[in-house]
Design brief:
mainly alpha, single chain
Amino acid sequence: GNATPRILEKLKEHNARGTFFMVGQKAEKHKDLIRQMVQQKCEVANHTYDHTLMNKVKPEELASQLERTNQVVSDACGVTPVLMRPCGGVKNEAGMGVVGAISMPAVLWSIDTLDWKTRNADKTVEAVLSQVKNGDIVLMHELYSQTGEAALRIIPELARRGFQMVTVSEMAAARGRGLEAGKLYFSIP
């Protein structure tokens, strides 16, 4: 969304990075932003091609969506996503089997800001700052301008508190753990 450039700018300002789970359709339209993410050492990850819930499609369709999105991102920036996020946090056995078969770990979150529901910057800021701790994965949707506003306040405050904002893969590496294909991660403790 239009909040993304400002979020990227704010991350850069604080030597911070994040993981962006991209819907393939959107990624196709915003290749410049994806290149910018990679340039800033942010992680571009896979959120299916058209935001499909894994329990609503056949496993073959899910596989094809994940592969298509990997291709779109790779074409845009030369880097292929290694992580995926199940849309809506919805998962089933068949879908997770597919995720494992294409060698991707699945990443959910430990702090849900509910930004998509509240559409309220103050509530989003509060959701993070009231409970954040080391190893947390914070869920935010940069489609909403209110989330953008919230991020511009959250990022400097986390930096001020001494948190280092890194990508999911960096956090896993720093913790000395590889993320396993087909496994689900809510945080990286």
